[in-house]
Design brief:
The protein is mostly helical. It contains seven helices and two strands. Among the domains are: 73 residues, no CATH class; 36 residues, no CATH class.
Length: 182
Amino acid sequence: MASTISLGLLLKILTLGWWGYIPSGMTPIIVSTVAVWRRETPHLGGFKILLDDDSNTNSRGIELSDKWTIYLLTAQLTFSQFPYGLLPALVGWIVGNAWADELVPAGLVRWRVPAWVVGEDTAGKRGRGQQYEGLRRRLEEEGQDGMREVSDGITRGGGGMQEAERRGRLGGVGRYFGGGGT
């Protein structure tokens, strides 16, 4: 809070009293994530809004990518408290591009949320190999039983085909989604 007050005071002094307000909110964080998203996510397509009636292939127009809605919402957020929202948006844009260019110190890039914050067990309580032991054992048992059913059907001379017909087209999956079994 003290840094915000001192930054506001510094802005007030440097701009001769014209700029003395910094809007609160998530504007810098949202703009920085948009800056990273812009670089990491390729555009899939686009379209052109024509400005004249000519059917020429070289007609004037505005070309927009499929990302234009995100840019529009970010601009709306930036200009919602004009001109005071420009500074937080500019800081967010600079930080987001610095992050994407890997100009941020390596210690900040490698930082992760601790496991206890998100509710995971720590490695001290459970060993890494024992974490999924029950799931592994259950999957192995189910896999062996499934293989026994298939091998029993084959050795009985076509019993597997009768079982498949009884289950239906999707192997009985339709029962779980409201279907009868076909």
